[in-house]
């Protein structure tokens, strides 16, 4: 960029012929913008809904945590089946708590 800017007018004209400022930046092309917009529109659709736990479920998980903050996979499966939750939900709760 600096070399073209400080070179003589004749050289810069031949180097820049047919190019505008938008052509030099990749992110500004209409094709790239439309792809980015499509990706942004698709992302919210892929996101899973947030799991909201009932107060009884939270209490049960807290009691289990107090007994054993790092439960075994078997304990996690038992908690999930007793509370009618997915094992991934129980695992995430323990990780976050």
TrEMBL record:
SMART domains: HOX. GO terms for cellular component: nucleus. Residues 1-70 are annotated as: Disordered. It is found in: Nucleus. Residues 22-34 have a biased composition (Polar residues). Residues 9-20, 35-45 have a biased composition (Low complexity). Residues 44-97 form the Homeobox domain. Pfam families: Homeodomain (PF00046). It comes from the Eukaryota. One of its GO terms (molecular function) is DNA binding. Keywords: Coiled coil, DNA-binding, Homeobox, Nucleus. InterPro entries: HD, Homeodomain-like_sf. This is Homeobox domain-containing protein.
């Amino acid at each position: 960029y600096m070399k073209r800017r400080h070179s003589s007018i004749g050289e810069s004209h031949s180097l820049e012929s047919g190019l505008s400022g938008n052509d030099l930046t990749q992110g500004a092309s209409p094709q790239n913008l439309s792809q980015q917009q499509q990706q942004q529109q698709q992302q919210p659709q892929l996101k899973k809904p947030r799991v909201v736990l009932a107060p009884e479920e939270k209490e049960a998980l807290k009691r289990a945590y107090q007994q054993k903050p790092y439960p075994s996979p078997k304990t996690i499966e038992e908690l999930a089946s007793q509370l009618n939750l997915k094992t991934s939900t129980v695992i995430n709760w323990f990780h976050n708590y």
